[in-house]
Specification:
345 residues; mainly alpha; two-stranded antiparallel ribbon; fatty acid metabolism; 60% helix; transmembrane
């Protein structure tokens, strides 16, 4: 990762964070800032659609549809593509065409490079100096992390650059040569990235328009902005706001502060503590009530032959964590009953 100006050890102030933000999106000072700027440009470009929805096309019956698209469709897509496949390679596509379809399953907002490389570092150093979105550094730190602490370093050696490229190569991202990397400071090329996003947006606006006119298209694109903002807050909440909020019988991973939350779990399959426990698992909903829409999609693709293999660690979870937990609970209950009977006698 490209170290921020205040370093990894310091908890920066809001002023330092915003100064870092403005510095890193300034393409006039350094063209290598293009990806950090672009990531926010696509997010902010969705605001006009949201405004059009509320001030021109607003209808009450479209609110739940936009809500479902934002929270469920885009949330689940993020879990499937960026998280389980992009970062952890929890499953394998049988053909590139299925990868292409999944990659463009919804309106594109987050470049793979921004998410995948930094998320691998996050798993290696959760809540430690060097974690690109360390929850202990505060909510604003996590919210602005895509610009301030997630971009890759700009001074990698040819050997290190090749290793970083391999982290995203399976996603279909066409990587810059080392010479291009030195010019642009990124794995992705700005022209290819812009073209990809532009074609994705054009396809989805056209598809939504053909189905339901500007009303549907504006609703979907406007709701996408809600997800684009909300996803920036997830890791802070998903790690207890930097505090230990883990619960016995719910959060079995004790190596970090990740927690299972009902809302992200139900709408996107993001049972975060389970995920940190078995990061390479294509399924994170291990218990009966833990709905996992991302897993259902992966399993469906497997059933039709679009996914050739996947990792499912549910059986390991049950054997290594859930069954021992139940055994301890039964033992505690038996001891309590014995103590009561002994006291009565």
């Amino acid at each position: 990762m490209e170290p921020p100006s205040y370093g990894w050890e310091t908890k920066p102030s809001a002023r330092q964070l915003f100064r870092e933000l403005l510095t890193r999106i300034n393409v006039f000072a350094d063209r290598k800032n293009w990806l950090a700027l672009t990531n926010w440009v696509w997010t902010l470009a969705l605001i006009p659609f949201l405004l059009l929805f509320f001030f021109k096309y607003f209808t009450w019956w479209m609110l739940p549809l936009g809500f479902l698209y934002s929270m469920v469709a885009m949330g689940t897509y993020g879990t499937i593509w960026l998280h389980r496949y992009g970062t952890h390679r929890a499953f394998v596509f049988s053909h590139p065409v299925w990868r292409f379809i999944t990659r463009n399953l919804v309106i594109k907002i987050v470049p793979e490079e921004i998410y995948i490389v930094s998320h691998m570092v996050h798993h290696a150093k959760p809540e430690q100096p060097g974690d690109p979105y360390n929850a202990k550094a505060g909510g604003l730190y996590c919210f602005l992390a895509d610009v301030t602490s997630q971009p890759i370093a700009r001074d990698l050696s040819p050997e290190d650059y090749e290793r970083v490229v391999k982290l995203v190569a399976h996603t279909g991202v066409v990587a810059n040569s080392y010479e291009q990397y030195q010019r642009w400071g990124s794995i992705a090329h700005p022209l290819r990235t812009t073209l990809h996003f532009g074609l994705n947006w054009a396809f989805w606006y056209g598809a939504f328009y053909l189905i339901g006119g500007h009303l549907l298209a504006v609703t979907m694109f406007g709701s996408a902005h809600i997800w684009a903002i909300g996803i920036r807050t997830f890791n802070f909440a998903g790690h207890g706001g930097g505090k230990d909020k883990r619960r016995d019988g719910v959060d079995f991973n004790r190596r970090d502060l990740s927690i299972n939350q009902y809302w992200p779990g139900f709408v996107a399959g993001e049972w975060h503590n389970n995920h940190h426990l078995y990061a390479s698992s294509a399924r994170a909903g291990f218990l009966w009530y833990q709905i996992d829409l991302a897993w259902y999609y992966i399993k469906f693709l497997s059933m039709i032959g679009a996914v050739s293999s996947y990792q499912d660690h549910r059986a390991r979870f049950l054997k290594q964590h859930w069954e021992p937990y139940l055994a301890r609970k039964r033992a505690d209950l038996e001891r309590s009953v014995d103590a009561v009977e002994h006291a009565e006698s």
